[in-house]
């Protein structure tokens, strides 16, 4: 498969994360977090978001070439929401990877955090209420929605699936703001976990604590921001 990028010592693959490009919900200033709404075409990318995704694809391509990583070793795993699917298609095109191929995989575990019916389709100003709740208790769910800890648990499921299916690959995870913040938070904490011989699940479950999960807002991403996990 050729060279791969830097990876965390307890993982078989190297990972990059990419938040979707600027979307219609971003532009309208509304929360679209349910699977039902999030997969509607009307909530895809704006023209600006399409351009952002193209630039992110170009940047990712440059990073791969700089590390002598073969395109055969690249995988794109993405959320089923319209804005992430659209972003992933554009990135795949920039990389010259067929989107309808084994190299691109939709994963429902990478979907947006569901903030709950009381927040759905309302102003994104209400995110502040949820993040305040996270700071107080990341294990407590907003009404009808997901807690930060619950999102972390399904991201662990996604990571376990990717690690089981791939080896020596460079994986681009295309998802959303909160999930990618939480993903970074738990992986950074897991990197510092000193227990030897622990499997991925045990290592990450050990660090999904109140003190770790309350830090997730420290890892906020801009739209179409690309970061390597290392």
Overview of this structure, please?
This protein is α/β, with parallel strands linked by helices and 230 residues long. The chain has one domain: Rossmann fold (3-Layer(aba) Sandwich), CATH 3.40.50.1240. The protein is built from 9 helices and 5 strands. The chain has helices at 24-28, 35-38, 47-66, 82-95, 127-136, 148-165, 177-191, 200-207, 210-213, and strands at 14-19, 74-78, 104-106, 170-175, 226-229. Strands 3-2-4-1-5 form a 5-stranded mixed sheet, with helices on both faces. Strand 2, helix 4 (82-95) and strand 3 form a beta-alpha-beta unit. Helix 6 (148-165) crosses helix 7, helix 6 packs antiparallel against helix 8 and helix 7 (177-191) crosses helix 8 (200-207). The chain is globular and about 45 Å long. 43% of the residues are buried. It holds the Pfam family His_Phos_1. This is Phosphoglycerate mutase. It comes from Platanthera zijinensis.
In brief, what are we looking at here?
The protein is of the alpha/beta class and 230 residues long. It contains nine helices and five strands.
| CATH-defined superfamily | Phosphoglycerate mutase-like
Provide the structure class. Answer: alpha/beta
Poorly predicted ranges? none
Q: What strand order characterises the main sheet?
A: 3-2-4-1-5
CATH architecture: 3-Layer(aba) Sandwich
Question: What oligomeric state do these chains adopt?
Answer: single chain
């Amino acid at each position: 498969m050729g060279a791969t990028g830097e990876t965390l010592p307890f993982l078989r693959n190297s990972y990059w994360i990419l938040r979707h490009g600027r979307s219609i919900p971003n532009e309208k200033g509304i929360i679209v977090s349910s699977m039902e709404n999030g997969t509607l075409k009307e909530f895809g990318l704006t023209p600006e978001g399409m351009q952002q995704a193209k630039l992110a694809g170009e940047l990712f391509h440059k990073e791969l070439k700089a590390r002598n990583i073969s395109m055969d070793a690249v995988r794109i795993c993405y959320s089923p929401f319209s804005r992430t699917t659209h972003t992933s298609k554009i990135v795949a095109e920039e990389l010259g990877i067929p989107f309808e191929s084994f190299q691109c995989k939709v994963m429902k575990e990478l979907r947006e955090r569901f903030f709950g019916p009381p927040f759905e389709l309302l102003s994104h100003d209400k995110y502040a209420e949820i993040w305040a709740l996270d700071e107080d208790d990341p294990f407590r769910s907003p009404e009808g929605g997901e807690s930060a800890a619950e999102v972390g648990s399904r991201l662990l499921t996604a990571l376990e699936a990717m690690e089981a299916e791939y080896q020596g690959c460079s994986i681009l995870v295309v998802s959303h703001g909160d999930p990618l913040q939480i993903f970074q938070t738990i992986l950074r904490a897991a990197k510092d976990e000193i227990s030897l011989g622990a499997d991925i699940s045990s290592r990450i479950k050990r660090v999904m604590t109140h003190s770790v999960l309350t830090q997730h807002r420290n890892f906020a991403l801009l739209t179409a921001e690309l970061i390597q996990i290392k």
